[in-house]
Amino acid sequence: MEEFQVCDGDLSDSLLQQYLKAEALAVDTETMGLLPQRDRLCLVQLCDPTGLVCALRIQAGQTAAPNLKQLLESPQTVKVFHFARFDLATLRHHLQIQVNPVFCTKLASKLARTYSPKHGLKDVVLELERVELDKSAQSSDWGNAANLSDEQLKYAANDVRYLLNLRLKLTEMLKREQRWQLAQDCFACLPTIAALDLLQYQNVFEH
């Protein structure tokens, strides 16, 4: 696969320096399930504006990745996720990384694309990028990191490959519809919401 690298445990120093140059960086995670306290983090995918994709394999029991932490906590680089709420909680719980600043394409889609009920990555990419993603590897064993299939790696790469373009197009829509400031305020709340999720608070804003 072009412009695709696999790292084990942490980013290499050279990749860190390359990614730190980016104004925005696409990020995603693959886990063994949807409960961070139960299900371990297996893979972190990154993509910069040049199209350089890295799949970082996280070992069982690993609790730190210093270069990744430096990158994801850098205030100069916007980290772009699809459904950031889950990824932020996962990275915080497993690697003690407090990601900031953040842009969430799913949240942006819900605020901008109010004409559609479909805000999954596949649906948003199909409409805005005219690309149909293959999601067949979505529910698969990511824990066997040393032996990930080509299909899994392709799936992982595609989960970050289009996020930066989506950010640009959704930002344009949000500004056009005068919802850009609202979106920014929502993005700023995401680390706090992720922290509440990890503490298993529910509906704290309801009466």
TrEMBL record:
It comes from Pegethrix bostrychoides GSE-TBD4-15B. It holds the Pfam family DNA_pol_A_exo1. This is Ribonuclease D. GO terms for molecular function: 3'-5' exonuclease activity; nucleic acid binding. One of its GO terms (biological process) is nucleobase-containing compound metabolic process. Residues 7-175 form the 3'-5' exonuclease domain.
